Amino acid sequence: MSPIFYACQEESIDKEDEGQNQVSEDYPTDGPVKAEIIYEGEIPRLYRNGQPYFIKGVAYNNFLDLVPAYGGNSIRTYGVNEDTQIVLDSALEYKLTVCLGIWVNRETDGFDYDNEEEVAKQKERIRQEVLQFKDHPAVMIWGIGNEVDSRYTNYKVWDFIGEVSDMIHELDTNHLTTTVLAGADPTDIEEIALRAPSLDILSVNTYNAIGLAQGKIAGAGWTKPYMITEWGPNGTWGNVPMTPWGGIYELTSTEKAQVYTDVYSQHIAANINKGCIGSYTFLWGYQTHGAVATWYGLFTTKKKPLAAAQSMYYSWKGGYPANRAPRIESSESLTLNGKTAFDDLVLKVGDENYASIKAVDLEADQLTYEWQIVREGLVISKDQRFEGSLPGLEGLFTSNDQKSVKFSMPGEGEYRLYAFVHDSHENVAFASIPFKVEK
Fold first, then answer.
1. What is the pTM of this model?
2. Which of 96, 100, 130, 260 has the lowest tally of Cβ within 10 angstroms?
């Protein structure tokens, strides 16, 4: 294993409650569907249409049609926009529920919760959004705000979210309300309980600190249910090792998959009797921007599954698909000029370089190879067209389909080398190396 994250060991998931695997076949397609919290003693359970419903969800970005095929039953959005009706109708088509995000302006982005006029405008905007979509049969939960606690100082935001929750319950008696925190700070949770008591669920986005979340939530006195609404490998914004120039070391797709398997087993499924009513994995589909273009995302841009998607298949269905993605066991499996990412490679303009990748396939499928080099901070636009797994720089490789390749760099800058490994069943693995080019 690379030194980026904790070592993850192979293990089977111990299902504490078989109810988490229940997917109701009764999916109404007309009118609003009742969602409610019912307590078994002190343990909260989510029910939808009178049936137990454990959320096996995804933070949605692309490829909604693949969610049910992998065992998922719900998606999460972040705000209402021109695509919301299409997303809800598509969720309905695939028998998925939706935690429908309502964007709440954040203090860190310049919004002032002491400005009563702007606060009132925002509340009216939200009122219209709720009225527009409250009767859609795919809606299950209203997600009021995403990470409004990010670098904030004014607790009035929780008063506002409490007022919105009250308003939603008046307008819509069929669905539940939540708000999403960036982590599980006990002070924030205490303020929410005091200022927004009508919220039905607490939601937390958490990555490297997910192991502390349940204890912090319970320790803050929260007795209602909670969800983990984003989770996955440690974020690029966290305390991750990097090169001297700031290039971040990245886990291979195989290593990331083990993180998803372990985190789900240890911190989501394990807490089903401790208040957790499910989660939303980050990120379904692929990233379009970020410090590292492939850090999150369970599929390639060409809709091909990575091992992390198959980890969720395993976690939700209890077994792997018939054919699994190739394996790149560690970051050291990819070398550049005989060195690994952790050697902090600085190349010279015009010099010839050599790269090689080691991968295996569990089913002994024939493997093919694809190499890409991108500038760090790559952004993929929504309508961008490109042939490979990424819109890499063109004309760099003498050949692009072998286990080992040669290339030279024409100019200075900070870059990332990718090796994508494809099997004959449309599954993909990848590894990357950050490098710098100087004269």
1. 0.93
2. 130
Whose structure tokens read 């957790």? 276
DSSP strand pairing (226-230 vs 276-284): parallel
Overall number of domains in the chain:
2
CATH assignment of the domain containing 199: 3.20.20.80
Domain of 260, in residue numbers: 18-317
Task: Flag whether 5 is in a domain.
Answer: no
Structure tokens of 52? 């137990």
13 domain-assigned = no
Residue 178, in any domain of the structure: yes
Neighbours of 364 (CB within 10 A): 8
Residues of the chain with pLDDT below 70 are 1-25
211 vs 82: CA distance, rounded Å: 37
Q: Are residues 299 and 394 in the same domain?
A: no
Query: What is the reported pLDDT for 403?
Result: 97
Q: Could you report the per-residue pLDDT of 88-125, keeping only the tens digit for each?
A: 999 999 999 999 999 999 999 999 999 999 999 999 99
pLDDT of the residue at 25: 58
- Is residue 383 located within the same domain as residue 250? no
- Given a contact cutoff of 8 angstroms between Cβ atoms, the answer to whether 321 and 423 are in contact is no
